[in-house]
Write a structure and sequence with these properties.
There is one protein chain. The chain is mainly alpha-helical. It has three helices and two strands. It has a two-stranded antiparallel sheet with strand order 1-2. The longest helix has 14 residues, at about 55-70. The chain is elongated. This is non-specific serine/threonine protein kinase. Belongs to the protein kinase superfamily. STE Ser/Thr protein kinase family. STE20 subfamily.
């Protein structure tokens, strides 16, 4: 029975993974490296300044990742 408390849920490992983009951050220049053009546009449209990007690079990457993960075209 599917709803039985004795049934263990099995989660498979990822299949056919692809590493598409590698983004880095240069703290000396305050610039991202390898940032796709569409992500650059997202930052500009969101009004996120270079100073904010330099002060919080991981937060910027997390926000972009969240946005792209939740707006994928199916």
């Amino acid at each position: 029975d599917f709803l039985s408390p004795d049934k263990k849920v099995e989660i498979s490992s990822p299949y056919n993974p692809r590493h598409v983009t590698h983004v880095g951050f240069n703290p000396d220049t305050g610039e991202f490296t390898g940032l796709p053009r569409e992500w650059q546009v997202l930052l500009q449209e969101a009004g996120i300044t270079k100073q904010e990007q330099k002060a919080n690079p991981q937060a910027v990457l997390d926000a972009i990742g969240f946005y792209t993960d939740n707006n994928k075209k199916e």
